[in-house]
Design goal:
The protein is α+β, with helices and mostly antiparallel strands. The protein is built from eight helices and eleven strands. Strand 3 (about 40-50), helix 1 and strand 4 (about 80-85) form a beta-alpha-beta unit. The structure holds adenosine-5'-triphosphate (ATP) and L-homoserine.
Length: about 300
């Protein structure tokens, strides 16, 4: 029987401008969970982010994802002790829910002795994306680097491709204290957008892949958006002010995921002092290139 597993999972920033629900970048800010066999059915201990407010029972997001994974694999892990050391801020647009889901699924695979490679990894991605509702953040947390995510209209399955980001890329997360729930700001989006806005977004999202992988000099035009940021402005007006002021000064800034964090994609230069960042915490954060890592406990 497995002595348990340790799982390290990265944060992520989705959209990256116009790549709504399609592009994601893994960030080197990690939650670490450990899962061990236990005599009682379930014990959950949480430290760090969310310690005061997440559920400590079967409804805990990591537990729900782990249960879904072992059920999918036909494995019964018995009683479990889960400890979570969380560093990813919750409800700020840094993919905390996706990281929790990927951590739970990876732990389930680890307990069942199934390596997250090949078709097992493809299955895990689909399972995680079904949980989250879209694949951009979960793909980044699973695979690391830059990810391009899509749903296959033939099979109904979520898929993702990984691209290696340029070595000079230096993301900066500009994180406000306020939270914003993704399901709330998704509710602010329109059913349809003008064709010209869709055409603009297609070009910029495609450009974003090239800029992040090969051409950091193109990051500013590559991170312009017409699909979601303005529609969500009333949820976080100060976030959009910061995005606009940074962009006006040549910094490739976009709303991170569903906000309210601002992601600046720099090549190491300092942020302009003229932009008022009062109330925000500035966190330079490297690209995570490895994705989720599962280690057996001895
Ligand atoms: N490590 C975790 N353990 C348990 N629950 C979590 C964890 N991380 C996130 N959650 C749950 O997910 C919620 C946040 O999810 P939400 O999708 O709104 O934001 P996010 O994932 O941080 O940001 P975004 O999706 O915009 O990148 C938290 O309020 C909490 O209920
Ligand atoms: N693409 C998602 C990312 C946040 O989960 C959104 O913007 O709603």
């Amino acid at each position: 029987m497995s002595a348990g597993v340790r799982v390290r999972v990265p944060a992520s920033s989705a959209n990256l401008g116009a790549g709504f629900d399609a592009l994601g970048l893994a960030l080197a800010l990690h939650d670490v969970i450990e899962v061990r066999p236990h005599t009682s059915s379930l014990t959950v201990l949480v430290s760090g982010e969310g310690a005061d407010d997440v559920a400590l029972d079967e409804s805990h997001l990591v537990v729900r994802a782990l249960r879904a994974a072992v059920e999918h694999l036909g494995y019964d892990p018995g009683g479990l002790e889960l400890t979570c050391a969380n560093a990813i801020p919750h409800a700020r647009g840094l993919g905390s829910s996706a990281a929790a889901i990927v951590a739970g699924i990876a732990a389930g695979y680890g307990l069942a002795g199934v390596e997250l490679t090949g078709t097992a990894r493809e299955d895990a991605l689909h399972l995680a994306a079904e949980f989250e509702g879209h694949a951009d953040n979960v793909a980044a947390s699973l695979l690391g680097g830059l990810v391009l995510a899509w749903g296959d209209e033939r099979t109904g399955r979520f898929r993702a491709a990984r691209v290696e980001p340029h070595e000079d890329l230096s993301p900066v997360a500009i994180v406000p204290a306020e939270r914003s729930a993704t399901h709330v700001t998704r509710g602010l989006l329109p059913e349809v957008v003008p064709h010209a806005d869709a055409a603009f977004a297609v070009g910029r999202a495609a450009l974003a892949v090239q800029a992040i992988a090969e051409r950091p000099d193109l990051l500013l035009p590559a991170t312009a958006d017409t699909l979601h940021q303005d529609y969500r402005e009333k949820a976080w007006p100060d976030t959009l002010r910061v995005v606009r002021e940074l962009r006006a000064r040549g910094v490739a800034a976009a709303v991170s995921g569903a906000g309210p964090t601002v992601l600046a994609l720099t090549t190491g230069s300092a942020l302009p002092r003229a932009v008022d960042l009062t109330g925000f915490t500035v966190i330079p954060v490297a690209v995570d290139r490895s994705g989720v890592v599962v280690t057996p406990l001895g």
